[in-house]
Amino acid sequence: MANEELIYRITRAVYGRLGTAVDEQTVEQLVTEVYRAIEPVVAHNGSSAASEGGSASAREREAHAEGSAQRLVISVFGLDHPGIVAGVSKVLADADCSIIDINQTVVQGKFAMVIIADMSRARESATALKERFRKEGERLGVRIYAQREDLFNAMHRI
Question: Does the pLDDT value for residue 16 go beyond 80?
Fold first, then answer.
C-alpha cells in the first residue's frame, strides 16, 4: 500500500521544481515512477515499524485514507445530454472495472459526475484507460478526467 506522506512529498517536490503550471499527467507519471523506484526500500524499512504494535483496524483506516493504486477517481463535466453515464460506464465495463461509488448531478443544464472505480481486475493500465476516457469524452462532448486514487489524494493535499 502506498505511503501517502511520501507521495505527498514527492508530488510537492515535483511541483516545486516544475512549477504549478505543469501538466497534471506529467506530474502523475513522474511521481509514480519515483515512488515505484523507492517503494522496495520504503517497504523494507517500514516492515519492522508496521509489525511493532498498532491494531489492524488502525492500519486499515490509514490505508483507506491514503487511497489505492487499484482505484480510479473519474470526474466528468459538460453540458447535460443522454448517454453520458452509459458511455463512461461502458469504458469501465469493457476494461473489466467495477464501479464502487458514483455520484452525478445536473445544475442548470451542466452535468457533473464522480465515479470511484475498482481496477483490480482491469485488463488495461490506468494510462490506457485515461486515453480511452479522453476519446470517449471527445465523442460525448464532455471532459473526462481519471486519476489513480492514491495520487489523487496525495495531490489534493497540496
Answer: no
